[in-house]
């Protein structure tokens, strides 16, 4: 899952980025309004964590403009705590609203929730036969036995599971698994696919030659 | 005990005045009527007495002689003279109406000087009291009147030393007057009743707007400050009150909004560093970290702590300034203060390759707190330094003219757009909407604090700015005159040049 974090306080931005990366997210960041809007418009992020009070362009304005083009899940993370602020934020099209200072675990849970919702997944545990992908614990089990996965491997499994039943291209996987700091390595996706196949079983991911990958039916 | 109800008090006054007027009017009417009636009676009596006197004077000489000797003419001796004597009586017009008893009829008497009654109307004897004080001793040629119990009498010195007297019962007149009194009392009570009822209703209508205002005022203070008393439908007297109240509410609402804005700004300013600390601490604790990671976390927390400390200090400074405390006002040489701040900030300017040019007039004294004034200069100069492009020059001048010291701090930075000029001294106002302290630093309270300090010193701080040209901050402080204490100048209106 690739997320965009927009926050003008450098210390907070640093912390958020680090925390989300440790959770297996690919993280892009912006500390100023115009840059944030450009990024949000350019990439189909899985979610955006958006501050409201930003230099040059406010978070509200970014969201307003974004909603004319994209339905990316957006979570407002702001110090504006009045009911009016929260109501107007949500009514602008935000998917969630969290007031600073916040609890890291709550932010992560809310982020997971809005991403699930955007993929129309209600149950945090996604099942494929004997495989169970627990998106809350970020744990994959096979016949109730946990399978050891790296953060990125898990992220790939989760991404494919969320997109179950739909064809997923290699570019899509690449875009959603790695942030902009990664140099493009075309075979990186294939490497990760083969790794999860060896850990979860060959049948988990089907390959459509020249088109992409498919999980489920 | 004082009566607290305005309406009741109005009513009581109304009742008192109304009663006074009605009683006064009725009394006057009654008094006038009785006086008029008495004059009428006296006129009748006097005409009766005069008629009798003239009749008596026209008597034949022998009768007059008899009167003089005190003898009555023999009634059996029917002479012409005695006939005339017998026919002696008061005119018919003298008889009043509504006589209930015989003795109420008017009477007359002709009395000799020795007190013997020579002739009288018959019933007169029945009521003439013992002769002790009768006849009147003081009869003269003028008609004299007197009261005899319920009777009114007039008498005069008649011919041949006789006394001619006519009397009239007053009972019937008293009865008339009593009736009048009853009628007047009745009308008076009726008027009073109608007047009081009308007054009560009218005063109720008059005080109704006060109730209305009170209801609205209560609602306003209880919940929404944006509500207003509807002054347009009110009378002029109450509209004034309502307008005054509305203005008060407006000021209250503005103050309330400023206060709540201030609180929300202050809490917002605290939220970001708190979030930073919270974030990094949770991150550090989420799994085992390297020593350098922990060090970094602690450094981040330290920065956040410093920011919060600065903010809290600024808030405390503002609170103290708001309390208008004048802690250490002494005569200070402002030149030294300005120079001190310039020296202090020089390293900061050098870091950005800025040149601080200064031209300071010597020995300029103002009355104030050196630490606070230094803070003003530091805030303004600090802003100029952080907003100036690298390599620019900042000019600082200090001059004195007449009553004021003028400090100008002129930078060649980006300047301030006119829409911000009016607000830059507001608390937490930032020209950039970012509230980021990454480059400009400060809590957003610096200029506001400066403004408060300068106002406490009875000076002014103003700014002239042109976007792209830079800004010119002027701090104006009243000079200390030797021997004379600093004048008390009323709080000045905020000025913003440009």
Automatic annotation (TrEMBL), chain A:
Listed InterPro entries: CheY-like_superfamily (IPR011006), OmpR/PhoB-type_DNA-bd (IPR001867), Sig_transdc_resp-reg_receiver (IPR001789), WalR-like (IPR039420), WH-like_DNA-bd_sf (IPR036388)
Residue span(s) of domain Response regulatory: 2-115
Keywords per UniProt: DNA-binding, Phosphoprotein, Transcription, Transcription regulation, Two-component regulatory system
Domain OmpR/PhoB-type, first and last residues per copy: 123-217
Modified residues (4-aspartylphosphate): 51
Protein name as it appears in the record: Response regulator transcription factor
DNA-binding region: 123-217
UniProtKB/TrEMBL annotation, chain B:
UniProt superkingdom: Bacteria
Zinc-finger as UniProt keyword: no
Bias kind Pro residues: ranges: 484-498
PROSITE patterns the record matches: HAMP, HIS_KIN
Gene3D superfamilies, A to Z: 1.10.287.130, 6.10.340.10, Histidine kinase-like ATPase, C-terminal domain
Region (Disordered): 463-498
First-listed, main subcellular location of the protein, grouped into a coarse class: membrane
Reactions that this protein is recorded to catalyse: ATP + protein L-histidine = ADP + protein N-phospho-L-histidine
Subcellular location: Membrane
Gene Ontology terms for molecular function: ATP binding
Protein name: histidine kinase
């Amino acid at each position: 899952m690739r997320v965009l974090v927009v926050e003008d306080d450098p210390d907070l931005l640093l912390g958020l980025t680090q925390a989300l990366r440790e959770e297996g997210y690919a993280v892009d960041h912006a500390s100023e309004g115009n840059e944030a809007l450009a990024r949000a418009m350019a990439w189909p992020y899985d979610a955006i964590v958006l501050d409201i009070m930003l230099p040059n362009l406010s978070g509200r304005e970014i969201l307003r403009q974004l909603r004319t083009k994209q339905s990316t899940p957006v979570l407002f993370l702001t110090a504006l705590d009045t009911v009016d602020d929260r109501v107007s934020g949500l009514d602008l099209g935000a998917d969630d609203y969290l007031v600073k200072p916040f609890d890291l675990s709550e932010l992560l849970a809310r982020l997971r929730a809005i991403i699930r919702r955007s993929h129309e997944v209600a149950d945090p545990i996604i099942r494929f036969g004997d495989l169970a992908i627990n998106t809350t614990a970020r744990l994959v089990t096979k016949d109730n036995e946990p399978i050891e996965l790296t953060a990125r491997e898990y992220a790939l499994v989760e991404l494919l599971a969320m997109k179950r039943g739909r064809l997923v291209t290699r570019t899509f996987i690449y875009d959603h698994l790695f942030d902009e700091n990664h140099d493009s390595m075309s075979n990186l996706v294939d490497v990760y696919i083969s790794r999860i196949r060896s850990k979860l079983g060959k049948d988990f991911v089907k390959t459509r030659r020249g088109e992409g990958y498919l999980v489920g039916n | 005990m004082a009566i607290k109800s305005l309406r009741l008090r109005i009513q009581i006054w109304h009742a008192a005045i109304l009663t006074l007027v009605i009683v006064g009017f009725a009394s006057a009417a009654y008094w006038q009527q009785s006086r008029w009636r008495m004059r009428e009676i006296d006129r009748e009596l006097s005409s009766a007495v005069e008629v009798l006197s003239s009749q008596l004077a026209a008597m034949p000489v022998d009768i007059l002689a008899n009167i003089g000797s005190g003898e009555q003419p023999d009634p059996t001796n029917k002479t012409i003279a005695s006939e005339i004597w017998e026919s002696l009586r008061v005119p018919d017009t003298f008889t009043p109406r509504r006589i209930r008893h015989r003795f109420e009829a008017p009477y007359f008497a002709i009395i000799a000087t020795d007190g013997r009654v020579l002739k009288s109307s018959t019933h007169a004897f029945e009521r003439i009291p013992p002769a002790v004080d009768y006849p009147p001793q003081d009869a003269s040629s003028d008609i004299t009147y007197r009261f005899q119990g319920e009777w009114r009498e007039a008498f005069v010195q008649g011919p041949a030393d006789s006394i001619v007297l006519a009397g009239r019962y007053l009972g019937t007149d008293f009865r008339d007057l009593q009736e009048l009194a009853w009628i007047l009392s009745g009308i008076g009570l009726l008027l009073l009743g109608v007047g009081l009822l009308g007054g009560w209703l009218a005063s109720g209508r008059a005080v109704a707007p006060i109730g209305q205002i009170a209801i609205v005022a209560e609602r306003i203070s209880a919940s929404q400050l944006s509500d207003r008393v509807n002054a347009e439908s009110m009378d002029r007297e109450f509209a004034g009150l309502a307008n005054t109240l509305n203005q008060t509410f407006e000021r209250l609402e503005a103050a309330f909004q400023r206060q709540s804005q201030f609180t929300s700004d202050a809490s917002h300013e605290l939220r970001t560093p708190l979030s930073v600390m919270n974030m990094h601490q949770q991150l550090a604790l989420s799994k085992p970290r390297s020593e350098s990671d922990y060090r970094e976390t602690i450094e981040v927390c330290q920065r956040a702590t410093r920011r919060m400390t600065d903010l809290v200090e600024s808030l405390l400074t503002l609170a103290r300034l708001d309390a208008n405390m004048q802690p250490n006002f002494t005569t200070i040489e402002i030149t030294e203060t300005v120079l001190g701040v310039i020296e202090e900030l020089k390293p900061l300017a050098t870091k950005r390759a800025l040149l601080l040019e200064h031209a300071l007039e010597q020995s300029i004294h103002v009355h104030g707190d050196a630490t606070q004034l230094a803070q003003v200069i530091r805030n303004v100069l600090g802003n100029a330094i952080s907003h100036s492009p690298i390599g620019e020059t900042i000019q600082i001048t200090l001059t004195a003219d007449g009553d004021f010291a003028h400090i100008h701090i002129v930078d060649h930075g980006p300047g301030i757009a006119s829409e911000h000029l009016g607000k830059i001294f507001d608390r937490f106002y930032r020209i950039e909407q970012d509230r980021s302290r990454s480059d400009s630093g400060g809590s957003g309270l610096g200029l506001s604090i400066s403004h408060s300090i300068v106002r406490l010193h009875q000076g002014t701080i103003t700014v002239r700015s042109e976007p792209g040209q830079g800004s010119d901050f002027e701090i104006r402080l009243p000079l200390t005159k030797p021997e004379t204490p600093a004048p008390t100048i009323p709080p000045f209106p905020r000025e913003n040049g440009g």
